[in-house]
Design a protein that fits this description.
The complex is a heterodimer.
Chain A: H1 2-25, H2 38-41, E1 54-58, H3 65-78, E2 83-87, E3 98-101, E4 111-117, E5 120-125
Parallel strand pairs in A: 1-2, 1-3
Antiparallel strand pairs in A: 3-5, 4-5
Chain B: H1 5-21, H2 30-51, H3 58-72, H4 84-105, H5 112-128, H6 133-137, H7 151-161, H8 166-188, H9 194-205, H10 222-240, H11 244-258, H12 262-278, H13 281-304, H14 316-333, H15 336-351, H16 357-377, H17 382-395, H18 398-406
Helix pairs in contact in B: 1-2, 1-3, 2-3, 2-8, 2-11, 4-8, 4-9, 5-7, 7-8, 8-9, 8-10, 8-18, 9-18, 10-11, 10-12, 11-12, 11-13, 12-13, 12-16, 14-17, 15-17, 15-18
The chains are: A alpha/beta, B mainly alpha.
């Protein structure tokens, strides 16, 4: 019995070590290391957004909800100093006066583009 | 380099506290004690400063560590004698551990949950100089897990405060956890012969899955809870011997676990139950108090600020349906790695015997029940949860289970060991 338990301990140790090394050499996950949306959102780092600003990120048209969630999270990762909220369209009546888009949509009346880089656009509500 | 500064400060502070701790019988060894108290000191400093309304700064984070390090010079710790053979095999283990720590340290963390949960919160906390409850109440997305206990994000935030990058900081901390897990396994495997203890330490350092440089796991919180459970389990046998230094260690490990993740709180509870069954009541009460206190500390603060997370689904129909589908879903996501992990688990459990067995079985049993409950009551898709979490959750306690299984291994020539090789560590 004691010999069996000793062998069990060594077997567990051997499998554990082997897996540790194997994972290093050949990780069994194939997701891309760099998020595909990183390049799209990266220019936000230099966008003229003051710390503490509340900004809406409009959902990109023609992509999945999951993709849009990651776009929003990437925006937060790139600019954690900004309070991000997801929105489908330009807010009509809201305290949000800053909107960022990631696709080539035209702004409705009352908004004007103040900055752009790549496919990113920053819009602000036009003062009345 | 700045990402490494808070880790270095923690090591200094942990070294100082560890020296005072080692004046008590049953305290952890110099290495594991340094890691344990370094993490605890840094985490406590951040929580206390936040509770006092004081903004986190480089100076205020360096101060407690510097004081603790200075105080350490005045301590006269008990030094356990070690044989030449033990030192030689200790050096072999150190080489294996250093190799793993180096590999972990040089790859900045990049996993998506790291980027959009742990690391993101670290950036937000560092910017605010405190736990930003306003942000946690209205996160950009619930994937950020605003309700999770904050310790891992807090530790990453320290590097950002010192001007470092979150990914580099996380890698630096995780290299420290590698050392801590290995040291805990080295201690837990005593009184096995030195080569076996070196194997246990190597298993600890080369723990599979959780340090894997993949998008699915890089920079996640599992290494920290693997360290916490390793320290806790390693101390349980010494707690049973009524050593004061041991229950302080277990209490510290439980606090770290409970402040890291909900799964960590489950493991801390498992340790508290194991302590209750195997140790003196007063010691077990201290461990339970550390667990409950840490869980309550965060939960009360989060609730008062209105922080919410995923709500478990407790309807019998939901749970029953998940239970029915669990075997099939688990089979559908099974990989060779998962099967190998399960084999290692079974082999490790089969190897544990003697007076240590009840404590290990309790920890593993409670952990398994907690995992099952999480899978059955989660609102998330079952196959997704299993695919991206089952292997890392199984890997968390594996090294310390293996180390506990190796405790009773004896070579024929060392069947009746005597001298320093046979003395329990600490």
């Amino acid at each position: 019995m004691k010999a069996f338990q000793g062998r069990s301990a060594f077997l567990a140790a051997a499998i554990s070590c082997a897996l540790g090394v194997a994972f290093l050499v050949h990780p069994d996950r194939s997701l891309p290391r760099v998020p595909p949306w990183e390049g799209l959102i990266a220019p936000l780092a230099s966008a003229p957004l003051s710390p503490g600003t509340s900004a809406a990120l409009l959902a990109q048209l023609g992509v999945s909800d999951a993709y849009n969630r990651f776009l929003l999270l990437e925006a937060a990762w790139r600019r954690p100093d900004v309070r991000w909220t997801p929105m489908l369209e330009f807010p009509l009546d809201s305290h949000y006066d800053t909107v960022v888009t990631t696709d080539a949509r035209s702004e409705p009346p009352g908004w004007s583009k103040t900055w752009g880089s790549g496919r990113l656009r920053l819009f602000r509500r036009t003062p009345r | 380099m700045s990402a490494w500064l808070p880790v270095a400060l923690s090591v200094l502070g942990g070294w100082g506290i560890g020296r005072w701790h080692r004046r008590l019988p049953g305290a952890p060894g110099a290495v594991s004690g340094t890691v344990l108290w370094g993490i605890a000191l840094m985490g406590t400093s951040l929580v206390v400063l936040d509770a006092a309304g004081i903004r986190w700064t480089q100076t205020l984070l360096a101060l407690p560590a510097s004081i603790a390090a200075a105080a350490g010079f005045f301590a006269q710790p008990t030094v356990e004698p070690s044989s030449r053979r033990e030192r030689t095999w200790g050096a072999v283990a150190a080489a294996a551990v250093a190799a793993r720590a180096l590999v972990v340290a040089v790859v900045p963390s990049f996993g998506w949950d790291f980027r959009y949960s742990w690391g993101l919160k670290a950036k937000v906390f560092a910017l605010a100089g405190r736990h930003d409850f306003a942000w946690l109440t209205r996160p950009p997305d619930w994937l950020a897990h605003p309700d999770y206990p904050p310790l891992w994000s807090d530790l990453i935030a320290t590097g950002v405060i010192f001007g470092g990058d979150p990914g580099t900081t996380a890698a630096a901390w995780q290299a420290l956890f590698v050392v801590g897990i290995a040291a805990a396994c080295w201690e837990c495997s005593a009184p096995a012969p030195a080569p076996v203890r070196a194997l246990a330490a190597t298993v600890g350092a080369w723990i599979p899955v959780v340090f894997t440089p993949t998008v699915a796991y890089s920079g996640y919180a599992e290494p920290l809870i693997a360290f916490g459970i390793s320290m806790g389990v390693a101390s349980l046998p010494r707690m049973a011997l009524k050593h004061r230094g041991a229950w302080i260690t277990t209490a510290g490990a439980c606090a770290i676990l409970a402040m890291t993740k909900n799964e960590g709180a489950a493991l801390a509870t498992a340790l508290a139950i194991a302590a209750w069954r195997t140790s003196p009541r007063r010691a077990a009460l201290a461990v339970a108090a550390a667990t409950l206190g840490s869980v309550a500390c965060w939960r009360v603060a989060a609730t008062l600020h209105g922080v919410q997370g995923y709500v478990s689904v407790l309807s019998p129909a939901w749970v029953g349906n998940r239970l029915l589908h669990l075997p099939g879903e688990a089979w559908s996501v099974a990989t060779p790695t998962l099967v190998a992990l399960l084999v290692a688990w079974v082999a490790a459990l089969a190897a544990v015997r003697g007076s240590d067995a009840p404590a290990i079985w309790i920890v593993v049993g409670v952990w398994a029940v907690a995992l099952l409950a999480a899978y059955l009551t989660s609102p998330l898709k079952l196959d997704h949860m299993l695919r991206f979490s089952l292997d890392r959750e199984l890997a968390v306690p594996l090294p310390i289970m293996v180390a506990a299984g190796l405790r009773d291994v004896r070579f024929p020539s060392a069947a009746a060991p005597s001298g320093p090789d046979s003395a329990p560590a600490g």
